[in-house]
Design brief:
Layout (H helix, E strand, L loop, with lengths): L4 E3 L2 E3 L3 E4 L6 H11 L3 E5 L14 H4 L6 E5 L6 H14 L5 E4 L12 H13 L3 E6 L3 H10 L3 E4 L13 H10 L5 E3 L5 H9 L4 E4 L1 H4 L4 H21 L23
Helix pairs in contact: 1-9, 3-4, 4-5, 5-6, 7-9
Length: about 260
């Protein structure tokens, strides 16, 4: 394959990134990850055991870092200081791991990002040597500022975290994609396979999701559906869709040389 996703100097075949929360257990999580084909898995450091508690099952035993690229995230953090501390802890737990996902939330009801605190945390983390993939609003100005700080990927929401509402503002998403020189991945709000396909058809470099798979009636089947939809959406984007028309006077089949034509 030549159409590879590149993030922080590393290449990946899969453009689908998956989470590790809300599953029945780590075994189901592993089965879903395998079905999705994902190579990057994101982990909420404050909620998932990756070695903090030696007495409990550890995610590393089910999704070993030798097989998956870990993306520690700051889910549950509401300030820049909190987020920075969390990711520094993740770096220690994962032996100097640099690739992280920054998210700083604004309130506990909507989980909408606090962009001021996000910008503040991004500056500290980039200066500290982290490769920062950043969850943000769909504001193109904020996205440009985050890229200017040095974030290695911009991850605007499609809709609110866990809502499953799909892409509510494709126009802002297109603006972010067109202005960005780093990968743009939709993060949050994807509910089903068609949402993922639309994100990829718009030109996103990838999609990150958790609840859409973990909360499905059949997470393993949904993981496979998401894999296929991301691949199909990417192919459709690269192929270039036909222009939309209200109607067309040009028939799709030839009108000359028809059998029985006079």
């Amino acid at each position: 394959m030549t159409d590879l996703l590149q993030i922080a100097g590393k290449t990946y075949q899969s453009r689908l990134l998956v989470g590790t929360g809300k599953y029945r257990d780590f075994s189901q999580n592993r089965a879903a990850a395998d079905a999705s084909g994902a190579e990057i898995v994101t982990v909420a450091i404050r909620r998932v055991n990756i070695g903090q508690d030696a007495s409990q099952p550890c995610l590393l035993d089910y999704l070993p870092p030798s097989q998956f690229t870990y993306l520690p995230n700051t889910a549950g953090c509401y300030s820049a200081d909190e987020a920075v501390r969390t990711l520094r802890l993740a770096r220690e737990l994962l032996d100097g791991h640099k690739l992280v996902k920054l998210e700083v939330l604004g309130d506990s009801n909507t989980l909408f990002p606090n962009v001021r605190e996000t910008l503040k945390a991004a500056e500290v983390l980039v200066a500290d040597g982290f490769d920062v993939m950043v969850y943000t609003s769909d504001d193109p100005i904020v996205a440009k500022d985050l890229e200017g700080i040095g974030c290695c990927a911009i991850m605007p929401l499609a809709s609110l975290i866990g809502s499953g509402m799909g892409i509510l503002n494709p126009w802002n998403l297109r603006l972010i994609i067109e202005q960005s020189s780093v990968p743009v991945l939709v993060d949050a709000g994807v509910g089903t396979a068609s949402d993922a396909a639309i994100a990829m058809e718009l030109g996103c470099d990838g999609v990150l999701m958790n609840t859409a798979i973990a909360a499905a009636r059949d997470p393993i089947r949904m993981a496979r559906a998401m894999k296929l939809s991301v691949e199909a959406g990417r192919d459709a984007f690269l192929a270039g869709r036909m222009p939309k028309k209200l109607y067309s006077a040009d028939p799709s089949s030839p009108v000359t040389g028809l059998i029985g034509a006079a």
